[in-house]
Design brief:
With 279 residues, the protein is α/β, with parallel strands linked by helices. It has one domain: UDP-N-acetylmuramoyl-L-alanine:D-glutamate ligase, CATH 3.40.1190. The chain is 34% helix and 22% strand. The strands form two sheets. A nine-stranded mixed beta sheet has the order 3-2-1-4-5-6-7-8-9, sandwiched between helices. Strands 10-11 form a two-stranded antiparallel sheet. Strand 5, helix 4 and strand 6 form a beta-alpha-beta unit. Helix 1 crosses helix 7 and helix 3 runs parallel beside helix 4. It is globular, with a radius of gyration of 18 Å. It starts with a strand and ends in a 21-residue tail after the last strand. Bound molecules: 3-hydroxy-5-(hydroxymethyl)-2-methylisonicotinaldehyde (PXL). The site of 3-hydroxy-5-(hydroxymethyl)-2-methylisonicotinaldehyde has 13 residues, from strand 1 and helix 7.
């Protein structure tokens, strides 16, 4: 049976992050993706690509969830940008009503590690209603600093402390994404399983075309869990998946470049018109 996954997330109209990243990644994992859109993010080329985030009416988020869960429990759920407190409540309700497991909370508070906060009014509700249910949460450095209330995190030791504090909010596992931002000669993430820390190191990939990396990483973990892999295996595989996606990043426009979600599987070679019929 094909595994079914829902993402409750914002729409990144530019196609790299948000629910677009999630659905593309779910497909790459051979899983079936559903989406409940909570916000629409648009960018203005005339204003130096400045972002506008428009939340969706909460009733519409509820209606989408009703549609998605019409067939019963799904194999996994991921949350990204959450839109409104009402949408967070509706998300918690389906988690409870359908006794969902494999719950990945990507606490989208800060975009691309900048300190500009997105929908900060949602943080308290996310902490109260979603993090306690999480199989795993995947904050970046800024988000981990906010959720742990430790502020700026500038070392692996501080990332570990933050992961421990975030685990006290309820998630069973925490990955703090340091990536290249720690300024070390490796991209470093800290994984905490509630007892032990694992430092996940990757080579630094010299590119600016990495928009969507965070969403793609969390989506890949979600798909791994839906397929029945352990949390640790899901995280390790997601690292490899996103590293390939960053390596093959694509310049999308004068303002930014995106990860290529199909890189790990060389998806650009599919449907090449050379035969391979479906039987
Ligand atoms: O990467 C954070 C993020 C999450 N969700 C949506 C986004 C972004 C950043 O652009 O647009 C919808």
């Amino acid at each position: 049976m094909i595994k079914k996954i829902v993402t409750v997330a914002g729409s990144d109209s530019s196609g790299g992050a948000g629910l677009q990243a999630d659905l593309k990644t779910f497909q790459e994992y051979g899983t079936f993706g559903f989406s409940a859109v909570t916000s629409i993010v648009t960018m203005d080329p005339a204003e130096n690509w400045s972002h506008t985030v428009t939340p969706i009416a909460p009733e519409l988020v509820e209606k989408q969830l009703k549609t998605i869960f019409a067939g019963g429990k799904l194999d996994a759920i991921k949350t990204g940008m959450l839109g409104t407190v009402d949408a967070i409540e509706a998300t918690r309700k389906v988690i409870d009503d359908f006794q969902m497991d494999n719950i990945v909370i990507d606490p989208v508070i800060a975009c691309k590690g900048t300190s500009e906060l997105l929908q900060p009014e949602n943080v308290a509700a996310m902490k109260r209603l979603l993090l306690p249910k999480a199989t795993i949460t995947t904050p970046n450095l800024v988000e981990a600093g906010i959720l742990s209330e430790l502020g700026d995190l500038t070392s692996i030791e501080q990332m570990k402390q933050a992961a421990k504090k975030i685990a006290l909010l309820g998630p069973q596992h925490v990955v703090v994404k340091g990536g290249h931002r720690l300024g070390l000669d490796k991209a470093v993430d800290v994984y905490y399983d509630g007892q032990q820390f694992t430092i996940l190191e990757n080579e630094l990939i010299p590119t600016d075309y990495n928009h969507g990396a965070g969403c793609t990483f969390a989506a890949a973990i979600t798909a791994g869990l839906a397929k029945g892999y352990s949390v640790e295996k899901s995280v390790t595989l997601a690292k490899a998946f996103v590293a390939a996606a960053i390596k093959q990043g694509i310049k999308i426009n004068p303002y930014l470049g995106h990860v290529w979600h199909g890189a790990y599987n060389h998806a650009e070679n599919r449907m090449n018109g050379k035969g391979a019929t479906y039987e």
